[in-house]
Every structure is written in structure tokens, then in C-alpha cells.
TrEMBL record:
Annotated keywords: Ion transport, Membrane, Transmembrane, Transmembrane helix, Transport
Gene for this chain: dmeF
GO biological process, one term: intracellular zinc ion homeostasis
Lineage of origin: Bacteria, Pseudomonadati, Pseudomonadota, Alphaproteobacteria, Hyphomicrobiales
The UniProt record lists the keyword Kinase: no
Ranges where the Cation efflux protein transmembrane domain occurs: 27-246
Cellular compartments annotated: Membrane
Protein name per its UniProtKB record: CDF family Co(II)/Ni(II) efflux transporter DmeF
GO molecular function, one term: zinc ion transmembrane transporter activity
Species of provenance: Aurantimonas aggregata
Length: 334
């Protein structure tokens, strides 16, 4: 049977996720807080001789740079969201920025560990009272920043419509999956300020014990502990963001199974299935179906309409025993 082309009208490929502009504004605010505290801690740590404070200030400077990457990704993705040269939109740019931030976080951990080991080898006097005061201020700033960056969205919204013209079954389905997906770009910024908060807590603990027992060595030792924890967080972020960039489907993701169950419920068989994330809360899928009784393309679309995270869909239907596809449906951004 000859192939019939079913094409879609122009449709949106904006897969930026919910609260995109809000997240961008929050990151700008956190950058301002971070830079201010960075200057205070580096100066205070140098004056009072606290390696924990200097280390905290140094890695706050790299966190500020990393968050500039975060906000830069938001701005670029927003401005180019409708650029047709980005075939599936710019929703994954945040994951690219998160991967870069994770690398910076790993370098921060190495820097803290290196500086701490140098201070272990060559201890210096510490002004404990002043250093503890500054560390508490740093912790307050870090906790405020973490609160600003906390992602607490868990709802969906979608809308759709169909068109037909001149005997061609055209379909595009516009939907915006608001939230419902992890924003690794915002998560990267959150981890950076969380690392700051951890370093502040360790600094307070080390300085407090050091002031009571005279354990000057505890200050840089806590720096090494903090470096190990931050390195672990960095690896987790590399893994999560890298998985999205490589179109890896996590083990806990049941979207492929949902698609198979919906399509194969009436005896049709999926011969090829590709599912990948195109933005926070947005997934795309290409589904190839073999069946002895091809149904109208709208039927297959309707079977998958309940899957809110499925924002871009392409379906190809092939009659069993024939050569080539008998129909192909492309569903645009939902």
C-alpha cells in the first residue's frame, strides 16, 4: 500500500518548564547575596586567620560564577525558545548548564581540600570569636538562598486542538506541562548554595570546638570533610544532568511502559519506541506501530492523551504484511 503522509502544521517547541522567569529572578537575587557574602568571608577569614572562612569565601566565588552560568542558560533558552534551528526547543539547555555547574562544584571541592591540607601542614593562629560571628552570618545567607531556590512545584496543565485540511489529517497538540519535572539547572544552583551552607556549618563546628579545646587542626580538617561531601553532590549532579543530555531513560521512569500499555491494549504492537526528555516536565516520543487493522491516527493520539508529560509525539503506523508505512502522525508540542 502506498505511504500516506500525515503532517502537522507549525507548532510550538517551547519546553522550558514551569516558573522559568520566576526561577531566573530568584537566581539573580541569590547571585547578589552570594557575591556580597563572598567578599565579607574572604576578608574576614584573612584578617582572623580562619581557613574555614577563607575556603567558604573562595568557593562562594566559584558558586557565584556557576550561578551566572545558571542564569545565563535561563536567559539564552528563553530568548531562543522559538528559534526553529533548535529542532526540539531549548528546554535541555538547563541540563547542559547544570552539567557545567557540576564540574565547577567538583573543582571547588578539590580547591577546598587542597587549601585545607596546606593549612594542616602549616597551622596559623585563629581569632575564633570574630570568625564564628562571620560564619553564622554566612550560614544565614546560605539558608536564605537555599529557600529562594527550593523548587516546590508539582502540578500540570495542558490544552490541545486539532486541524484537518484538504483530505490530510493534520494534528498538532499544544500543551504546557507546568512543573512536574525536575529543573536540573535550578537544582545545580540549589546544590551550590547548599554546599555553601554545609561549609558554614562545618566552619562553625570547627571554630567552636577549636575555641574550647585549642584544636586548631580541626578547622582545616572540617574543610576536607566538606570537600568530600561536595564532591559526592557534584557526582550526583553530573549523573542526573548527563543522563538527560544523553537521552537516558531513568530506571524509575515509567513513561515508556505507559505508552506501550496504552497502544498495545487492543492488540496493536509497538515495533520501535524512543522516549526522551526535551525540557523540565516535557518528554518527546517516537512510536512505530505494526497492526493488522490500522485505525485513524486520532485514535492513537487519544490513547496517549492522558500522559501529561508527553509534550511532543510522532507516530508511524504500518499494516502487517505490507511494505512501508501506511500512515504517519506527528503531534507537536503539548
Amino acid at each position: 500500500m502506498p505511504a500516506t503522509s500525515i503532517h502537522s502544521a507549525s507548532h510550538s517547541h517551547v519546553f522550558l518548564g514551569d516558573g522559568y522567569r520566576r526561577n531566573e529572578r530568584r537566581v539573580w537575587l541569590v547571585i547578589a547575596l552570594t557575591v556580597s557574602m563572598m567578599v565579607i568571608e574572604i576578608v574576614a577569614g584573612t584578617i582572623y586567620g580562619s581557613m574555614a572562612l577563607v575556603a567558604d569565601g573562595l568557593h562562594m566565588s566559584t558558586h557565584a560564577a556557576a550561578m551566572l552560568i545558571t542564569v545565563g542558560a535561563y536567559v539564552f533558552a528563553r530568548k531562543h525558545a522559538r528559534n526553529p534551528r533548535f529542532t526540539f526547543g531549548t528546554g535541555k539547555l538547563g541540563d547542559l548548564a547544570a552539567f557545567a555547574s557540576a564540574v565547577i562544584l567538583a573543582l571547588v571541592a578539590l580547591l577546598i581540600a587542597y587549601e585545607s591540607m596546606l593549612r594542616l601542614a602549616s597551622p596559623v593562629p585563629i581569632s575564633f570569636g570574630q570568625a564564628i560571628s562571620v560564619a553564622f552570618v554566612g550560614l544565614a545567607v546560605n539558608l536564605a538562598s537555599a529557600w529562594l531556590l527550593k523548587d516546590d512545584n508539582h502540578h500540570h496543565h495542558h490544552q490541545g486542538h486539532d486541524q484537518g485540511d484538504h483530505g490530510h489529517a493534520e494534528h498538532h497538540d499544544h500543551a504546557v506541562a507546568l512543573a512536574g519535572g525536575r529543573d536540573n539547572n535550578l537544582g545545580a544552583a540549589y546544590l551550590h548554595v547548599l554546599a555553601d551552607a554545609l561549609t558554614s556549618v562545618l566552619a562553625i563546628a570547627a571554630l567552636g570546638l577549636g575555641s574550647f579545646y585549642g584544636w586548631i587542626w580541626l578547622d582545616p580538617a572540617m574543610g576536607i570533610v566538606g570537600a568530600l561531601v561536595i564532591a559526592r553532590w557534584s557526582w550526583g549532579l553530573v549523573r542526573d544532568a548527563g543522563a538527560v543530555l544523553l537521552d537516558y531513560v531513568p530506571e524509575g521512569e515509567d513513561l515508556p511502559d505507559e505508552i506501550r500499555e496504552a497502544i498495545e491494549a487492543d492488540g496493536d504492537r509497538i515495533t520501535d519506541l524512543h522516549v526522551w526528555q526535551v525540557g523540565p516536565g516535557h518528554h518527546a516520543a517516537i512510536v512505530s506501530i505494526a497492526t493488522a487493522r490500522p485505525r485513524p491516527l486520532e485514535t492513537y493520539r487519544a490513547k496517549l492523551a492522558h500522559i501529561h508529560d508527553l509534550s511532543h509525539l510522532s507516530v508511524e503506523v504500518e499494516r502487517l504484511g505490507s511494505v512501508g508505512a501506511t500512515a504517519a502522525m506527528s503531534a507537536g508540542s503539548r
